[in-house]
Amino acid sequence: MFGRRSPHGIDAFANGSDELQPLQTATGPETAGSNPEPGRGAEAAPPSLPATTALSTADRHDAPIRSDTFKTIRSAVFSSMNMSAALMMSRSDVRAGIEQIAAETIVRDRLTLTLAEQTFIVDEILNDMFGIGPIEPLLADERVTDILVNGPDQVYVERGGRLELTALKFRDNAHVINVAQRIATAVGRRVDESSPMVDARLADGSRVNVVLPPIALHGASISIRKFSKRNITLGRMSQQGNISAAMVDVLRIATACRLNIVISGGTGSGKTTLLNALSRFIDEGERIVTIEDAAELQLQQPHVVSLETRPENSEGLGGVSQRDLVRNALRMRPDRIILGETRGTEAFDVLQAMNTGHDGSMTTVHANTPRDAITRLESMVMMANGNLPLMSIRRQITSAVHLILQIERMRDGVRRVTHVTEIAGMEGDVVITQDLFTFRYSASAYEAQVRGVFEGSSLRPVFAQRAAYYGLEEALLKAIQS
């Protein structure tokens, strides 16, 4: 197998080195999706293992990857391989070559391995070359929504809204750092001791955050937020119990009427999933500009311009912030501006955009209640312009934002939209809101699964007049009363 010619005429198994090249853009199986998928908690099945061997989980992931046998075979493979050429071949072609080298090494060094262990070692080497190491199989597991690597010895996953410790391990901390650097390099970013934190994404769109030592005290940390393969719609969320059918009708009308909507919630509550689902009601004839730190929105409309921030380089130059992109987006003739998350001074420019003809814009914020979301917007606007009086800021928020949707990941792991709150105006210096829908949980029925109902207030929405302009007032009132 040494010096073997590939079917593509590339000598991939000669003049090799033990250094992995940057992660390729076609990384592993496609596992596109959004934020943790809502509503999977109640129906999540027990975790399954990759069906590559019959070994126990602990044996497969603790002993082999750190064993001398694994190191011997891996060293033989990389010393016989031209990595640059191999990465241009298909995974199946490279696998055949690795299997032959592994078999020859086992015979030459008289290693004792079962066929299952040999298959596992080949899979791990391929995952190092074409994927993200030992955690590559987790990307193919649709039930996994988050992958959390805490150094080489701890890999957690979230299934159905609950964290589980897996038996997966890396060889050592250098192995974790190598995987993290290949992920960052693939999207044109860098992470090392001088720049120990980075936000990046995988080829399937999954969001990645990396923190390296010395910032991470117990080894490199990698946090991956996966996206579901299934396109989540409000209809599907209604079937899963994340939202009621009446709420879906009202949100469909609100989006069609070009209301400015803020989605509020905690980390991992499903804000981006809900934003993606809402965007499906946007007319295909509109021009949409999306702005994100790490691109994760998956809009289905044909006319979408996606912008992504850029961090500063090692000289502190070249950075492009969300605020810069919001300002530039105003010159791009957008019908709607969708900001993945508002977390800083860009809040001022977002409110300005909503107030100056870009109706139907949407964004998300981190907050625990709709009232807290308003307070957070006030604080972020003050960060941008501390000289603005609070009354002026509140008037801007009142005129810019029409609806606040509160989504929460509850203790049973299910994401539910707990409030659909309308900003009704101001009374003195107080912003007036009214809840159109709320989720009321049953305090008397404490079980593993949260019990409750979605309740409508039957109040006439302030935006009913706007709905009449679009010919949707009757449909709105019918949905509110249902």
Automatic annotation (TrEMBL):
Residues 1-63 are annotated as: Disordered. SUPFAM superfamilies: P-loop containing nucleoside triphosphate hydrolases (SSF52540). Pfam families: T2SSE. Residues 36-57 have a biased composition (Low complexity). Residues 22-34 have a biased composition (Polar residues). InterPro entries: AAA+_ATPase, P-loop_NTPase, T2SS/T4SS_dom, T4SS_GSP_E_ATPase. Residues 257-411 form the AAA+ ATPase domain. Signal peptide: none annotated. It comes from the Bacteria. Belongs to the GSP E family. This is AAA+ ATPase domain-containing protein. It comes from Paraburkholderia haematera.
